[in-house]
Amino acid sequence: MSNRSTHNRRGTLAFPRTLTAVAAALLVSLAGPGTVASGAQNHAPGHECATPSIDRLQQWIASGEGTTVPATGSLLVPERHGYSAKVTFLNDEWHVAVVWLGNQFESQADLSRSRGFWMTYSATDDLYVQLRPASHWNGGDKWLTLVPSTGGKTVKRFFSFADDNWTTLPELGAPTYSFASALTEARGLVFVGKTANTIDFRGLRIHGYRPPCL
What we know:
The chain is mainly beta. The protein is built from 2 helices and 13 strands. The strands form 2 sheets. Strands 1, 3, 5, 6, 8, 11 and 13 form a 7-stranded antiparallel sheet that branches. A hairpin with a 2-residue loop joins β5 and β6 (82-90). The longest helix is centred in the last third of the chain and has 6 residues, at 179-184. Residues 1-31 form the signal peptide.
């Protein structure tokens, strides 16, 4: 199927349904240098886009893969003076939620000089985030890092782009390209998880990168 199809644009995984020993692949610490409790993300006037966005990221999408609420479409909902992106994963199956870094599928960003990103979120269970490059968008065999459960509390956490913070899962397969090369053509961050989970994103700021508003 072409990358220009709606399904593939949102993040095709083609995941199998059985989970192998995932924890063994994540023995290194993936959390980054700090976690702090946080409330709703507050943005300076003029920081956000004219249409709904979180840290100028306008495309937060439920891909239709896995049973989720919402099933498809935008995750953005009004939240106090801005927006949050809310999604619920249901059942023990792979689920997918996508953020396009350039706010359109055809865009990509060079993050090779970025140290990582701060994310303000809450989650009731662990999940993962994949960095997907433009040249290898489809499929589950991507570099990823753990997004730890917060027990439903909103926290702000740093996720480093250091190579040793990103790994693979045996069930999903190993990518054929390096993580360093993926950073040079980053198209999106894709959140995946195989357990029931209630997730609320309040902020996502990437060091050295300012998303273009559309």
